[in-house]
Specification:
233 residues; 10 helices; 9% strand; mainly alpha; two-stranded antiparallel ribbon; rod-shaped; 3 domains
Length: 233
């Protein structure tokens, strides 16, 4: 079976991927400014082109070139044969085979994966700068470090856990080395992500014993006229 595929389909996509599509883009310049589109004489063909865009965007794959299917979508084939429409729209559509259809589907899947990866990268980066309170830009180098971790199968929760442990580090020079690479990257053959995932150090706040007979729970005693810390801490 052959399929109808819209050329440059992505330019008609509204841009969001997280919910069902409710509309698509069609610019004024296309109807009044694109000579190739203006030269399409039949209003039927122009309307069919809009419908074909909608159908492929919703299906996320090329549309079957089947009269029965197209009729079910409102195409009045007897009034104007689909062949004439395809001929008039040749600058905007292409006919693909089953193999070409699968190729288009794979391209769409790849694009969806890339969009999802991009969202995860941005989500983690925002978490990192929020927790570290560091003003950083998501440049190509930082994107590559984060994406590489996701490609390795690491989860965003693992990366966020590493950040949580990273910001608890009490090294006095830590403020000089607050960046993505020091938290989840690899430097000098040391995997910082594993390092911080395995770092469960928590600051222990010591307190005096409340029932101490010496300081009576205050934590301090007078020694040689000076206030001194009790041994019960």
């Amino acid at each position: 079976m052959n399929y109808i595929h819209i050329k440059n389909l992505e330019k008609y996509h509204p841009g969001y991927k997280d919910r069902n599509l409710l509309w698509f883009k069609m610019y004024f310049t296309m109807v009044n400014g694109d000579p190739e589109f203006e030269m399409i004489e039949s209003e039927i063909d122009k309307w069919r082109f809009a419908v074909l865009i909608m159908l492929e965007l919703q299906a996320k794959k090329p549309i079957p070139l089947d009269e029965g299917y197209l009729t079910s979508k409102g195409f009045r084939i007897k009034k104007r044969p689909i062949g004439l429409t395809l001929q008039m729209l040749h600058n905007f559509i292409e006919i693909v085979t089953e193999e070409g259809n699968q190729a288009c589907i794979e391209v769409e899947k790849k694009r969806n994966r890339e969009d999802k990866d991009s969202e995860c990268v941005t989500d983690f980066f925002n978490y990192f700068v929020t927790k570290t309170k560091k003003s950083l830009k998501l440049n190509a180098e930082r994107q590559a470090i984060i994406k590489r971790r996701f490609d390795e199968g690491r989860t965003i929760q693992e990366l966020k856990t590493a950040v949580d442990n990273f910001v608890q580090d009490d090294w006095q020079d830590r403020h000089k080395f607050i960046d993505i690479v020091y938290c989840i990257g690899v430097r000098n053959k040391i995997d910082n992500l594993d390092k911080w995932l395995n770092s469960k150090k928590q600051k222990v706040v010591s307190k005096p014993k409340p029932n101490c007979d010496v300081c009576k729970g205050t934590g301090y005693v007078m020694q040689n006229g000076h206030k001194a810390r009790c041994f019960c801490w």
